[in-house]
Amino acid sequence: MTQPVTPELLSSLLDEHGSALELFASQWTGMPEDCVQEAFLQLVRQSKPPDQVVPWLFRVVRNRAISLRRSSQRRQRHESAAAIERASWFQPVPRSPIDDAKLTEALRSLSDEHREVIVAKIWGGLSYEQIGEVVGTSRSSAHRRYEAGLRILRERLELTCQNEAFQNKTTTSSRNSKVG
């Protein structure tokens, strides 16, 4: 019996979507690679591959990541273990106009429903219809969540930049007044 999913297709899917799937899973778990790997294994086990493989992979990764998060939370409650620190969501980019750490923190501060839609749209390249299928909502709700999440990010990042500018200005003027 031959498998309906070829090694070439798996390789192509992993190359094109693996990083976005890991980023998507990292919203819920510190083990995003495991979620992606298990999703691909589940794809191989399918007797008939899904019609739309990429949204299917996002849904499976999401469900597995959420399950892992719940399991981890239960374990932490029972063992009183320290929280697992996640790596930054971004790789450093030379001359980035926004500090990666601030953007990561701003994304983490969003609600799950806003963050998952933004990550799926920007890094996953999914359409609003596909995102709606993945997160269990309508296309228009996915679009509204995306727009609302971006609006919140803009506000939070602008406020951070304004606070830093104010702090730099007051630090500079207090130094100047001490010198004179």
How would you describe the overall organization of this protein?
The chain is globular. By secondary structure, it is an all-alpha fold. The protein is built from 7 helices and no strands. The termini are far apart.
Radius of gyration: 20 Å
Averaged pLDDT:
81
Tell how many strands the DSSP assignment holds.
0
Q: Which shape, going by the Cα principal axes?
A: globular
* Helicity, as a percent range: over 70%
Low-confidence sequence ranges: 80-85
Briefly note the structural class of the backbone: mainly alpha
Number of helices: 7
CATH architecture group name of the largest domain: Orthogonal Bundle
Largest sheet at a glance? Answer: none
Question: Concise description?
Answer:
With 180 residues, the protein is an all-alpha fold. 72% of the residues lie in helices and 0% in strands. Helix 2 crosses helix 3, helix 5 crosses helix 7 and helix 6 (128-135) packs across helix 7.
List keywords for this structure.
180 residues; Rna Polymerase Sigma Factor, Chain: A; Arc Repressor Mutant, subunit A; 72% helix
Layout of helices and strands:
Layout (H helix, E strand, L loop, with lengths): L6 H19 L6 H14 L7 H27 L20 H10 L2 H11 L5 H8 L3 H41 L1
Helix pairs in contact: 1-2, 1-3, 2-3, 3-6, 4-7, 5-7, 6-7
